Amino acid sequence: MNQEATSPRKRYDEAFKRSAVQHWQTSGKSAALVAHELGLNAGTLQQWKKRLGTERPATGLRTVADLEAENRRLRRELHQVVQQRDILKKTLGILSAPSESAWNGSEP
To answer: How far apart are CA 8 and CA 43, in angstroms?
Structure first.
């Protein structure tokens, strides 16, 4: 049997897997490109992301993806609250402004 054809599978530690997935997620590059750069199969990188994405770090630390999702959510919420505040300010201004028809064109 040819030894070159039956080379053993490479083993990667958890730190490398996390680093590879984080690099892929933050680089903006495709999985195929990042995998090629790292000498991996794109499917392997996607499997690592799927498995690591469902894990919660035991130390209470949050993943970059979790923080990015929270940041997007908070930005949407802030935008909505600012719009509501602006509407309330305009409404208050309209309600508190004296009406010209109340004076009826004559002086008191």
So the answer is: 18
d(CA 13, CA 15): 6
CA 103, CA 108: separation in Å to the nearest integer?
A: 8
Cβ neighbours for 52, distance < 8 A, ≥ 6 positions apart: 17, 18, 21, 63
Alpha helices (H) in the chain, listed in sequence order: 14-27, 31-38, 42-54, 64-96, 100-103
pTM over 0.70? The answer is: no
Q: What is the mean pLDDT of each run of 10 residues along the chain (108 residues)?
A: 58 86 84 89 89 62 85 96 95 81 57
Q: What is the DSSP letter of 97?
A: S
